[in-house]
Each structure stands twice: as C-alpha cells, then as structure tokens.
Amino acid sequence: MSKGGPEQPVEDGTAHWAAHWAARIDAEPRSAHDPDLATWLAADPRHAGALLRARATLAMFAPGAKAEPEAQPQLPQPAKTQRPRRTIALLGGVGAVAAALALALLPRGGWR
C-alpha cells in the first residue's frame, strides 16, 4: 500500500472495452449480437460484470431511455453444479433407514 492512499487496481483495459461495447449497444442495439462481443465476453468471466456496470453507468445519463430487449447481449451462464456424492449417499442412507423402520413396524400378519 502506498502512503498516498489505497492501491488502485491494475487496469487491464476491461473497463475501456466494456464502455466501448456499452456505447455501441446503446447506439445500435443489433451490436449486442456481434460475434466480437461474444468472444470478448467468453474470454473472461469478469467481462460480463464490467459490461453490466458500463451499461448501468450509461443508463444513469439517460434515465428516460428504456433498454430494448433485443439489445441484451447473451451473457455466459454459470455451469450447473451437481449434487455432491456425500449428499446423495446421505439421502440414500436416510431412505434405507426409513424403509427398515417401516418394515419393522408392520404388523406380523401384514395389512388387512
């Protein structure tokens, strides 16, 4: 940390390109479907957040403007997580205990 204040994050150009794409989408909504934008978004998961922040900042300067639905870029979706094996084993064990308990509590002659 420097004496002058908190350290500034290293700028890698992400904010610049996010502002560039936000302005292009604002000027021409069809730009949201540009393959170059899709490539940029897929390159780093932080790019999607940077683009959303840039679009929000741009919207503050034109509060009456309404974002067009077709101007929404396809953001990468997070991978769906699988249920951990331990949870599956635990649920299976609980089910086995419940079945054994039900059999133990059945009347000796069965259901009538």
Task: Please give a structural write-up.
- With about 110 residues, this protein is mainly α.
- The chain has helices spanning about 15-25, 35-45, 45-60, 85-105.
- The protein is rod-shaped, with a radius of gyration of 27 Å.
Task: Describe this protein with a few key phrases.
112 residues, 54% helix, rod-shaped, mainly alpha, disordered N terminus
Helical coverage, percent range: 40-55%
Task: Enumerate the spans where pLDDT stays under 50 for 5 or more consecutive residues.
Answer: 1-8
Q: Write down how many β-strands occur, each being a DSSP E stretch of 2 or more residues.
A: 0
Radius of gyration: 27 Å
Mean of residue pLDDT? 77
Compact overview of the structure:
The protein has 112 residues and is mostly helical. Helices cover 54% and strands 0% of the residues.
What's the topology here?
Elements: H1 14-27, H2 35-43, H3 45-61, H4 85-105
